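cache lookup: miss for this entity combination. No prior model stored, computing from scratch. Input as submitted by user K.M.:
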Amino acid sequence: MDSRNFARDSLTHLPTVAATIDSVRKDIQARGELVVLYFNFDRYAKIEDIYGWEKLDALLETTAAAMRAFVKESNLTLSQLMVANPHDDDFVLFHIPEKDVSAASEADITELTIRLQERITRDVESEHGESIAALAETYVGRSHVYYNPKIRLERQIYRAMREAAAASKSLEAREIAIKLSDLRDTLRARSIYIDYHPIISADTGKVFGYEALARGIMKSMRSPEVMFDIASQSDLIWDLSRLCRAKAVEGMKDHLSEGQLLFMNVDPHDFTDPAFTEAELAVPDPSRVVIEITERTAIKDYPKFRERLQAFRDMGYRFAVDDAGSGYAGLGSIANLEPDFIKLDISLINCIDANFIKQNLVETMVKFANDQGAQVIAEGVERGEEFEVVKQLGVHLIQGFFLHKPGTHGFVPIHPRGGEPKQTVTHLSR
Amino acid sequence: METNSIASRTQILVVDDNPDNAHIIRDYLEARGYPIAVAYDGEEAMALFEKVQPLVVLLDVMMPGKDGWQVCRDMKLHPTLGKKIRVIMVTALDDWMNKRQALQTGADDYVEKPFELAKLAATVERNIAMLKVPA
């Protein structure tokens, strides 16, 4: 690729820092100051890992568009928006006070930052939904440069960028400490609720079962990914998993009709938790519970793990391999677990209608599942085109916002094939 | 014929370091009405890519220097042309992991090597259908 392509980010069409300095040089010299705001989107890498790069690209485009629109609407005529590095996911705003403003005050910068963060969150949520927005957390670090004619401007700016990036990291660390405290409160008060997300049969369109998705009642704990991330960093994963399992099973009688199955996420690490036993779950009919095990976590002691699975299986529990095909394990490893269900990795479903390699992979998985006597579930189906393609490829069960949107009274069908779920959300008081 | 008029406006870039392979593909697709450009390595492919602005690229993977995966990535990241093209890898993507890696480069489709010409044409056609070229 030639050097011109490193002056501008191909995705967002924003310039890079190096390409911007010349265009702001005169304004910085004239105004005597520059505020560097560094936007660190903490969990964008996680979004790429879960949903695939196409989703992250779309999110970065939304983010850049929101920031660009904000700068324009706010009449920040001297300010410049750019990417920290081409093809990466951090953004930088050079803020130079307008000519009628005497100097950039800390209060003004704080207010500007908050409004810009709110704008990004609003646009990301409206275009990509609440789950993605909950993961798209922004930490904005700042650094103030007072122009010194004795030091080359480039060096002053790069130094300020490093300071702003470090400041954004320390904000992130402080936020993690606050979230850890929120998680401890959540565990003590058992303040989580379960979203029962419908899974429909591709053939009949009827609700086949529900996946239990645990969410914290506190706003900071709304995203299960964030909640579990914090728990795993602080050795609270077993405590959180126990609470989520108990809540999911408790809600079965109110949310599931006869014959419908409960799909429950269990981390392979949970199998080493002495409290996670066949008896702990206390399900009257274990054959109605499907334990989902993600392919993403490496299983260290395979024989022991299989032994534990068998004990659950003997009681009647069924198993699903979650995130199958994400690339962590081959088909052989999936076969070893002898799953009853294979849940395809979401990144394979996103835009599957436009990608024939994804279609080939899903077709391979369906054939493999049929040979193994398992059923394939496509989750994350968000568009009609994706729905039609996965159905044509022979996927047995389908889950996603194309069929049911989360609403205040649970997941409501938005497509005729979306079945008729029961009231599916319980908000439990502390 | 409508398909011919679409074909005549669908520039295809064939990239293969083996001239015999490249010419077989070129001759076969030219006979079906497609305008074809041929490049014999990754560097030449990138230069021709900007010059002829193809809508479909047939890309061999094993090439000396810049391999097909790198060329695919560069084409897909191109600031103005990257989003408009369909890239078909010409390779034996024989296992799951290879196909996963192909997805990471932005590839849209593949034809197995050694290829059957009829299958190659069908693959080109289904990718042209995704371009939504106005009739």
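stored under new cache key. The beta strands of chain B are 12-15, 36-39, 56-60, 86-90, 109-111.
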